[in-house]
Every structure is written in structure tokens, then in C-alpha cells.
Design brief:
The complex is a heterodimer of chains A (221) and B (130). Chain A has 221 residues and is an alpha/beta fold. Chain A has two domains: 124 residues, 3-Layer(aba) Sandwich (Rossmann fold); 87 residues, Regulator of K+ conductance, C-terminal domain (Alpha-Beta Plaits), CATH 3.30.70. A six-stranded parallel β-sheet of chain A has the order 3-2-1-4-5-6, sandwiched between helices. Chain A has a five-stranded antiparallel β-sheet with strand order 7-8-11-9-10. The longest helix of chain A is centred in the middle third of the chain and has 13 residues. The relative contact order of chain A is 0.11. With 130 residues, chain B is α/β, with parallel strands linked by helices. Chain B has one domain: Rossmann fold (3-Layer(aba) Sandwich). Chain B is built from five helices and six strands, in the order βαββαβαβαβα. Chain B has a six-stranded parallel β-sheet with strand order 3-2-1-4-5-6, sandwiched between helices. In chain B, β5, α4 and β6 form a beta-alpha-beta unit. The longest helix of chain B has 13 residues. Chain B is globular and about 40 Å long. The termini of chain B are far apart. The relative contact order of chain B is 0.15. Classes of the chains: A alpha/beta (221), B alpha/beta (130). At the A-B interface, α4 of A face α3 and α4 of B.
Chain lengths: 221, 130
């Protein structure tokens, strides 16, 4: 794969090094010649000195034949513009922008950046998983081309459905329990007369929009 | 008309004066307060500190009530990003954006931004006098 990377800071350098070792062709663009020289001493001639937001620099970089374009400078605006030029002028199929201000995510998506990456968001998500109650519902898959998903739900001992038969449980519309895994890991095909027990796990197919309702119906006390 | 000008450069300050003379209500936004010294001493509008590529700063500057937004910082990419936010997030009716790099200007014009390229304007104007 041919990958063009704009920004030879820490992220750009380590990324270039990693994708090179995986056998990809890489070009690293940066405005600072000295930085590029240091990197080229180590990694070979993979650098191009110039502004990654200028069309003629991207032209020289052979951006038109790039499979992937990655902008990882520390300026959100520069990453956005570089990706837009790669996308619209050079028709690069996939563009990736690094983003510091997490508010920019919907904007970047709307303006044509295919993928946004933000360490702020990653760390924030980690903090949220550490501080919120463990979720009993895990999404297993989003069914291709539809608004349906498959989820795994753990039935806590406090749930109102414990001891009830499946036919007596009211689930959101279009939801179907397709598999039951007992606490001792036995797998059962549920029927309308199967009784749910504490510690059971059920696999459910349902509408993505009613995920919260499903969570409440199966785990609520 | 209510106009928000991002970037209190010489052009920004001068535009603010022109618009006020014509009776428009002008707000100027800049990350650096030193630019506000360029405003005319008769300037009656608001001069606010803030980053025009930040949605919260734009909201505080009242972008939701603006009829027009003008991006005039010295940095092309900052102007381009701010103008796209004004247009696609806040639906400001009239958005104008300064872009020094002629090829970048051409691309964003094709993408639907209302752009002004001083480089091209000055070159054309000088050429005409030669």
C-alpha cells in the first residue's frame, strides 16, 4: 500500500516507522527540513520537505496514487485542509486526520474526512469505562445493511426477569432472544417456556434504536 | 446586517470601519488582543478574544445571530476551517474567506466557499499597471 503522511512530529515519525516495517511504501511530508533529515538518517529517504496543504507539494508526493492519506500535524485546521485537498484534488480513497479538539469530530466527518483519530477521545473513553457502572449489554455485531444489531446481555440477580418464562417477558418490538448461555456455560436454544435464571447470558437480535429499552427490560429490577 | 469578522488584521480592522460607516453591526474576534489596536477609535462594535475555529468561541461571539461571517486571519487553513464551520454548522447566510494560496483558493471555490485571494488580486492589479 502507498501511504502519504503529513506531519513528522512524534506521531508521524512513529507511524512512518511502523508502516515501513510492515512493508508499505511511505512518504512523510513536513515543513521542517532538519526534522526530516534526522528521520531520513534512520529510516532512509522517505521524506519530502514542504507544506502538506499545498497542492503542488502533494502532486510531487504522488498523492494521486496513494491508497491512504494521513494528516497528523498538531494543528486540527492543517490536518483538515490537507485531507480535503487529498480527497478532492487527488481522489485519495481514504483520508485520516488527527484531531486534538474532540468537538471537531462531526465537523471533520461532514467535511469529507473518512477517519478521525484523537488521543483525547481514546483517553476519555477509557476514563468513562473506568468510572461508569459495568455495562451488562455488549454489542456483538451490527447486521450489515440494516438497523438491527446482535447483543449479549447478562442477567443480574436483581433483574425482574429472573424466574420468568420467556413468553412472559415484554421486550421491545422486533427483539428476539436467539441463544441462552447458562451460568455453567451450557448453551441452550430458548423456547417460549424457558425460564431465565440469574447469571444467564442471552444473545438478542433487535433494533439498534431500542437498545436502551432492551437493556432495561432484561436487567432492570 | 450583523457581521462577525475573525482576525483583527489591518484588513479586518479596515473592513470593520467600512461596514460601520454603512450602518452595519460589527463584531471582531481574534485570539490576540494586540490586533484590536488597529481598530478605528470610532469603532462602536464588540471586540472579543476567541478562536474562530472553536465552535464554543463562535457561539459566544453570537454567530447564531450573524448575517455574515468573514475569515481574515493570516493563516489560510484557519480561515478555511472557520469558514466551513460558519457555513455547515451554523448556516450563516454569507461567508467570505481569505486564502493567500491561489491553488488552495481555487479548490475551495470549487467546493463552494466564497473565497478572496489577495495574492491573485494584487498580482493582477500590478500587472495591469506595467
Amino acid at each position: 500500500m502507498y501511504i502519504v503522511i503529513v506531519g513528522a512530529g512524534n506521531v508521524g515519525y512513529h507511524l512512518a516507522k511502523a508502516v515501513l516495517s510492515k512493508g508499505h511504501e511511505v512518504l512523510l511530508i513536513d515543513r521542517d527540513a532538519a526534522t526530516l533529515e534526522r528521520i531520513e538518517d534512520e529510516l532512509g529517504s522517505i521524506g519530502l520537505n514542504g507544506d502538506g496543504c499545498e497542492a503542488n507539494v502533494l502532486e510531487e508526493a504522488g498523492t494521486a496514487r496513494a491508497d491512504l492519506f494521513v494528516a497528523v500535524t498538531d494543528q486540527d485546521a492543517d490536518n483538515l485542509v490537507a485531507c480535503q485537498i487529498a480527497k478532492h484534488r487527488f481522489k485519495v480513497p481514504r483520508t485520516v486526520a488527527r484531531m486534538s479538539d474532540l468537538k471537531n469530530e462531526p465537523l471533520f466527518k461532514k467535511l469529507g474526512v473518512d477517519v478521525t483519530v484523537s488521543s483525547t477521545i481514546l483517553i476519555l473513553q477509557y476514563i468513562e469505562t473506568q468510572t461508569s457502572k459495568p455495562r451488562l449489554l455488549t454489542r456483538l455485531a451490527v447486521l450489515r445493511g440494516s438497523e438491527r444489531e446482535m447483543v449479549d446481555v447478562r442477567i443480574p440477580p436483581t433483574a425482574a426477569v429472573v424466574g420468568k418464562k420467556i413468553r412472559d417477558i415484554s421486550l421491545p418490538q422486533n427483539s428476539l432472544i436467539i441463544l441462552l448461555i447458562r451460568q455453567d456455560e451450557r448453551i441452550q436454544l430458548p423456547t417460549s417456556t424457558t425460564t431465565l435464571e440469574a447469571g444467564d447470558r442471552v444473545v438478542v437480535v433487535g433494533d439498534r434504536s431500542s437498545e436502551e429499552g432492551l437493556h432495561q427490560a432484561l436487567t432492570g429490577s | 446586517m450583523k457581521v462577525l469578522i475573525m482576525g483583527c488584521s489591518r484588513v479586518g480592522a479596515h473592513l470593520a470601519s467600512l461596514l460601520e460607516t454603512d450602518g452595519h453591526e460589527v463584531t471582531v474576534l481574534d485570539v490576540d488582543p494586540s490586533g484590536f489596536g488597529k481598530l478605528s477609535h470610532t469603532f462602536r462594535g464588540n471586540a472579543l478574544l476567541g478562536d474562530g475555529t472553536d465552535e464554543d468561541s463562535l457561539r459566544r461571539a453570537g454567530i447564531e445571530q450573524m448575517d455574515a461571517f468573514v475569515a481574515l486571519t493570516e493563516a489560510d487553513n484557519t480561515n478555511i476551517m472557520a469558514a466551513q464551520i460558519a457555513k455547515s454548522v451554523f448556516n450563516v447566510a454569507k461567508v467570505v474567506c481569505r486564502v493567500y494560496d491561489p491553488t488552495r483558493e481555487e479548490l475551495y471555490r470549487e467546493l463552494g466557499l466564497d473565497t478572496v485571494c489577495p495574492t491573485a488580486l494584487i498580482a493582477a492589479s500590478v500587472k495591469k499597471r506595467l
